[in-house]
Amino acid sequence: MINLLSGPSGNFADPAVSPEGPRETEPLAPEIRERNEQLVDAYASELYDAPADAILEWAHGNAPGPLVVTLSMENTVLAELAERHLPDADFLFLDTEYHFPETLNVADEVENRYPAHTLVRTKAVLSREEQDRTYGPNLYRSHPEACCRMRKVEPLAVHMSPYVGWITGLRRADGPTRANAPALSLDATGRLKISPLVTWSLEETDEFEESHNLIIHPLTRQGYPSIGCATCTMPVAEGEDPRAGRWAFSAKTECGLHE
C-alpha cells in the first residue's frame, strides 16, 4: 500500500484516488433543498437574461440561508456588486498554490477593500510539495483532471457546506462551453447556483472595473482574458476564445467546478 504522503520516485499513488481527508459537501436539510428546487422552478426563466443587480437583489431576498461569493480574482466585479447587494455574504477564493503572484495580490487587496465580507481561502489536503511527492511532479500536466479535482473541486465542495447557494462569475461570453449557462440553477448538492454576470461581455466587465475604480488584475490587460493557475494559463491572441489559453497543452476546457 502506498503511503500517500511519501510516494517514492517511480511508485507514485494513483491520481484517480484522492488523498484521505474531507472532500464532500454536507447535505442540505431536506426542507432547504426543497425550497431551492421551488425557487429554481419559479424563477430560472425570469432571471435568465436579467441584469446583475436584479439577480443579486433577488438572491438577497429569496435565498433560504447564507450565500457565498466565489472569486477567482480574475476580476473583482462580483466583490463590488456583493458589497452593494449581498451585505452578509462571505467571499471564497480557491488558493490552489499554483496561482500567479498577481492573483494572490488581488486577493489581498480584495480582503482589505471589503472588510465587511469574510474572505475564506481554501487549500487542498496536500500542499503542492506533498502532491509532487505523492502523485509525481507536475500532476497538472500529466493528469490535469486529477490536479483540478484535488486542488479546486474538492476544496470547494468542503467549504460549500455552510451555505445554501453560491454566486459565480460565469459569463456566456467566456466560450462555447458556457454559451447557454443559466443565471439560476441547482448544483449537484441542491444548492442554488447564481451567476449574475452571465450576460456580460469581456468589454462590459472591463468597463465596469474602470468606471468604478475597482481592483484590476494586471494580466487581464496583458493578453490574459481568462486566468487560472500560472502553470496552466497562457495569453491568447486577439479574437480567440477567451479561454483558449487555459490548459493549452491539453484538450481540457473546464476545471470541473461548472460541469
Automatic annotation (TrEMBL):
HAMAP family referenced in this protein's UniProt entry, alphabetically: CysH
Any one GO CC term of the record: cytoplasm
SUPFAM superfamilies: Adenine nucleotide alpha hydrolases-like
Cofactor(s) the protein requires to work: [4Fe-4S] cluster
Originating species: Corynebacterium qintianiae
Catalytic activity: [thioredoxin]-disulfide + sulfite + AMP + 2 H(+) = adenosine 5'-phosphosulfate + [thioredoxin]-dithiol
Domain of life: Bacteria
Phosphoadenosine phosphosulphate reductase domain location: 68-235
Similarity annotation: Belongs to the PAPS reductase family. CysH subfamily.
Compartmental location: Cytoplasm
Cofactor comment text: Binds 1 [4Fe-4S] cluster per subunit.
Keyword Iron-sulfur among UniProt keywords: yes
Matching Pfam families: PAPS_reduct
Protein name according to UniProt: Adenosine 5'-phosphosulfate reductase
Keywords: Cytoplasm, Iron, Iron-sulfur, Metal-binding, Oxidoreductase
Pathway: Sulfur metabolism; hydrogen sulfide biosynthesis; sulfite from sulfate
Positions of region (Disordered): 1-29
Active site per database record: C255
InterPro entries given in the database record: PAPS/APS_Rdtase, PAPS_reduct_dom, Rossmann-like_a/b/a_fold
